[in-house]
User: Fold this.
Amino acid sequence: MNELLRQLLFLPEQRSSLAREIDGLHYFVISVTMGGAALITLIGGYFLIRYRRRLEDTHRPHPGVFARPALFLETVSLFGLGFVFLTFWTIGTRQFVDLRTPPEDALDVYVTAKQWMWKFAYPGGDSEISVLYVPARRPVRLIMTSRDVIHSFYVPAFRIKQDVLPGRYTTVWFEAIEPGAYPILCTEFCGTSHSEMRGQVIALDPADYERWLAGGVASAPAFAQEAAAEAENELAEAEPTMPSRGEHAAAKHGCLRCHTLDGTQHVGPTWAGLYRSVVPLDGGGERVADEAYITESIMDPLAAVHRGFTPVMPSFRGQITPPDVAAIIELMKSIRDVPRGAVVPWDGGVSDTGAAAPEGVTP
Assistant:
C-alpha cells in the first residue's frame, strides 16, 4: 500500500530512516481531507435532493423539517474536526521533535551555503563542494549556515528540508538506508542562479566511505564518481564568471586554508596583488608572478619558493585540472589591485592568524 500511494502521489523514493514515517502522515492528511471533501459533497447532495422546494410548497410556510438533523450534523462535524486537528498535531509534533533530535552517534558535517554552491566540511579537515559523502546506515547531522542570503537545504529522497540563514546555525539530520546518489536542491529563492544551486548526497557502504576518506574520489565506487562529476558540471554552469569559478576551485582543493584573498599574510603568500608582481625567491633571484610561474608553483611548488615562506606546499600535479588552474589565475587577476600586507616569516607553528598549516593541503 505504501508503494502504491507513493507512486500515485508522484513522490520520490524513500531513502532515509524517517522518510516512510513522514510519508505516512502525508498519506493520512490527504486521505482525511479527500474523505472529508467527499463526505461534504454527499451530504450536500442529500440535502439538495431531500429538502428541495416543491411547487406546492411555494404558498405555505416552510416547517423547517431539517433543523434538527442539521444541528446534529454540525455538532458531529465540529467534534470530528477537532479530533482530526489534534491527531495531525500530535503526529506532526512527534515527527518534528524526531527530526530535531539526532542520535548520539551521529556524524557531524558542517555546511556553508553560498551563492550558488554548497560547501561541506568534515571533522577530520576534509571538505567538498556540492558533493556530500556520507556512510549509509549511520545518522548524519548537518550544522548549517549561510555566507550571504537565505538558502534552503532539501533532499527529496530523505524528506528533509531546512532553511539556512546568514549569521545563524540551523541543524537537521538524516540516515541514508542504502548506498546511492541523491540530489540536493535549494528551495529558497536566492538569486539569479537559484535553480542551478544543486548538489549530490553520495551515500557509501561504510567500507567504501573509509576508502574515500583515505584516498578521495578516485577511491570511491563508480556510481559515486559519476555523481560527483555531474555535480561538478552543474556547479560550473551555475558559476557566472571565471573568478567565481576560481574561488570555488581554490576552496575545493584546500588552497584557501593557507592563502588569503584580502591581502592578509598567512601560511602562504596572499593572492591579493600577487598577479604580475615581482616575487623574491629563496636562494636569490626574482620571478614575475605570471601564468607560467603560478602554474609551476601549483604543480612543482618547491621549484621557486617565495622568500619568507616555509616550503610546506605539496604538489598538485595530477590532482587539479587545467580549467581549475585557469580559473584560479583569473581569480588572482581579479584581485591584483587589492593591497598586500607585509610578509611576516612563518615559524612552522602557528601563523599570525592563529592557524597551523594543515597537513597535505595547499598552504
